[in-house]
Amino acid sequence: MAKSKQELQSIATQVRRDILRMVCMAKSGHPGGSMGSTDILTSLYFNQMNQNPATWTRDGKGQDMFILSAGHMTPVYYSVLARAGYFPASELGSFRQMGTRLQGHPSVRKNLPGIFQASGSLGQGLSAACGLALGKKLDKDPNFVYCLCGDGESEEGQIWEAGMFAVFHKLDNLIAMTDWNGQQIDGPVEKVAGEGDLAAKWEAWGWKVIVADGHDFEAIAKAFELAKAGKGSGQPTMILFKTEMGHGVSFMAGTHKWHGSVPKPEQLEQALNELGETPLGDF
Amino acid sequence: MKKYTDTGKKDTRSGFGVGLLKAGQANPNVVALTADLKGSLKMDAFAAEFPERFIQCGIAEANMVGAAAGLAITGKIPFIGSFAEFVTGRVYDQIRQEVAYGCTNVKIASSHAGITLGEDGATHQTMEDIALMRALPGMVVLNPCDFNQTVQATIAAAQYNGPVYLRFGRPSVPNFTPEDEPFVIGKAIVLNEGKDVTLIATGHTVWEALLAAEALEADGISAEVINMATIKPLDQEAIVKSAKKTGAVVVAEEHNLAGGLGEAVAGVLAANFPTPVEFVNGQDKFGQSGTPSALMAAYGLDAPHIAEAAKKAVARK
User: Fold this and answer.
1) How far is A190 from chain B (nearest CA, A)?
2) pTM
3) Tell me, what's the pLDDT at B27?
């Protein structure tokens, strides 16, 4: 059953708590982008995707599939998967530890349910998602393939190769998303690479483009509904979600400085206080 | 000594084309992708018979690797085809993450490998591809020697569950292996028994090794010839067994020394049965424009050079 906006907000708050606690326990990881895309992935897994952890298989037969192209955002990915029931939330504490299934970047070699493909080396996930979408078309499987890219990641040329391929092969079962937070490791995207107007670029590439507020659950849901309505049009969809790196915690929001940095103990305490507790409880 | 007959020169890439069609007929999950080299890879027959299962990717090899991985995850058996350099060096990281680390059942069809690509010159002549692919955990590396064996190796690659690098070439070369001999991955084939020296060859150098063995016989040297069509996993048992018998080894490959079959064989022998080994390969050089046969001679990869190396190996015993 679909979650209410309030329920989604509560889950998202718990996911942000998980992210911060995971990276602090691991003393490494990428909290900024994870917190920025938390609302998107919470909405996706709890209200949008046709997915079921109980019957999940890597081939994705009969279900929607998801690829995290920006593979460093494992904290949010693992937390959402755990909270959606793919594996026990208690396992989140093993993030990045020796022997864990929760590798720094997604791995398919650890039998972690929910992971369709390895990612981490940037710019490759959208290509894999194209292959999944094409495979579903060949199998006449009506389900969708979702893929989350970063805006910094979109500086990789392969993203645009995939963009051309998806249009040429009419992959209207592919819904790509960009976490458009305007930040990357070395600073604001415009100062690092001058990426320009992503909406105009994807439109020029022939995609259906939707721009939405990535922190407004109603706007997120509307964007997904619009994207799904594109099925049959022969055109893939790119949802550009306007987000804020580090969203949800005052001192982390809107700066690239938290891309791959870990809060100090007192900062963690302040962040958790700001977020507040949820009925789901910490892992 | 057993004599092998060339039943008519053919290119190994045409063997791939025939093998791909047969694999596609045998299994509906087989799909083929190319980056604007359908004709060069001899994929036309497959594309004509299975238009929905042929996926043109344009000149975008990196995306082709990822798309193939995605298709494999959904249960397809994708063959991606391009020139050897462009499906290895150009996309090494994509193959590493999407195929090898990602455990996807992708078959890399690598044509125009080595120096015999010929006239296009060094930008297109890779002699480093085996090294790159061998270095990847779990990657199977195949380098069949003629048309017939390439047909069979392609079928075997389709049947094998896991990543495979299948290397073949452009020029027409003697076709001499049995037409219907099933390809067994990981199994060396002893083409000729001998007692004085072992010639281990792969790909286009196998025929040259057979010619070298004939020349050596005339000089009173009995050469054992092994067709090492699987470079990884390497048939260690066959190597050690033959070295114990002959006490001298030559490894011939259309590839540079670093990371190639020669180093792999030397590693096996060093660990198990130290034996004098001589290396016939592209040394540490880039290629250049020329006809395939002129290049094979100029880079020291033909029968006379293999025979000379054999004599050196025998002298070191």
Assistant:
1) 25
2) 0.97
3) 98
